[in-house]
Write a structure and sequence with these properties.
The chain is an alpha+beta fold and 280 residues long. 29% of the residues lie in helices and 30% in strands. The protein has 7 helices and 16 strands. Strand 10 and strand 11 form a beta hairpin. The longest helix has 18 residues, at 262-279. The protein is globular and about 55 Å long. Bound molecules: pyridoxal-5'-phosphate (PLP). Pyridoxal-5'-phosphate binds at residues 34, 178, 181-183, 202, 204-207, 242-243.
């Protein structure tokens, strides 16, 4: 793997450092995005930046001036990295100051971008699916903001690994919300069911692409409704959707096995065709 390219507070570098006094370090007072690129071309960049800006507004973090020039910065980072498959990580923290819960007014945000080589999931996993555990959704009440406060997600992934599973799916009050770093879709009678967009889930870009572009093209209906944990035994299949997982079938949740229905493989194929069109 090639070493990553960093852009921090206006400079490209091969070694980025963050001061201890950064509020991102003390309080996870920050938002982030992960964007993929192929052939040095990012995809769904505008959608990711829109979500990032919304997060900044919700948290009352000042918008860094670098966001105005984000396309050029991303392109330059991808040129410097110079690989076929890459990911771009952007993190914006409220800024640096001595540690106080209440931030001073007007502190300058920290802007960090990292372009790294990316290894997509194997063909085998994408075709045959992955097993998941259930994990109680102990996250805060604003999961619609993409903050770096990800400890419950880390704990869920750790438990999944300890038990020999690939990842976890969160449930809250008996309802499936989403996975630790991707959206969750169930398939039943060729219809897709996914949690409605509210403060319990991240407004996932890949979820939106499936709902707005892929499902209508394939003539599939999408129902945005809460899915109960006990309904899992009645569905035909399920998949995860997210920037890093693409469209990833699920072959088991806890002790319930699923086959991978053609419906899911069609959605996956359409997603890859769409990404290839954007990045060719
Ligand atoms: C909790 C959570 N849900 C869903 C997603 C998928 O979002 P996207 O499709 O924008 O990558 C992510 C991505 O990081 C996530 O962390």
């Amino acid at each position: 793997m090639k070493p990553p390219v960093y852009f921090i507070d206006g400079e490209f570098t091969t070694c980025a450092k963050i001061p201890v006094d950064d509020r991102g370090f003390y309080f996870a007072d920050s938002v982030y995005e992960v964007i993929r690129a192929k052939n040095k071309k990012p995809y769904f960049l505008k959608e990711h930046i829109k979500r990032l800006k919304r997060g900044l507004r919700e948290l009352k973090i000042i918008e860094p001036s670098y966001l105005k020039d984000i396309e050029n910065i991303v392109n330059e980072a991808l040129e410097r990295l110079n690989v076929y498959e890459s990911s771009i990580y952007i993190q914006i923290t409220r800024g640096k100051e001595q540690r106080h819960h209440l931030p001073k007014e007007g502190i300058a945000p920290t802007f960090l971008l990292i372009a790294s080589e990316f290894k997509p999931l194997s063909h085998n996993l994408l075709k045959n699916g992955v097993p998941l555990i259930f994990y109680e959704d102990i996250r805060w009440g604003r999961c619609d903001i993409k903050t770096t406060m990800l400890l419950p997600n880390v704990m869920a992934k750790l438990e999944a690994r300890e038990r020999g599973y690939f990842d976890a799916v969160f449930y809250k009050n008996g309802i499936i919300t989403e996975s630790t770093s991707s959206s969750f879709f169930a398939v039943k009678d060729k219809k897709l069911i996914t949690h409605p967009k509210d403060t319990n889930i991240l407004p996932s870009i890949t979820r939106e692409v499936v709902i707005e572009k892929i499902a209508p093209n394939l003539g599939m209906e999408v129902i945005e409704r809460p899915l109960k944990v006990e309904e899992i035994s009645e569905i035909d299949g399920a998949f995860l959707a997210g920037t890093t997982y693409d469209i990833l079938p699920i072959n088991k949740i806890e002790n319930i096995d699923f086959r991978v229905p053609d419906t899911i493989l069609q959605i996956q194929k359409s997603y890859f065709v769409l990404v290839d069109e954007i990045t060719k």
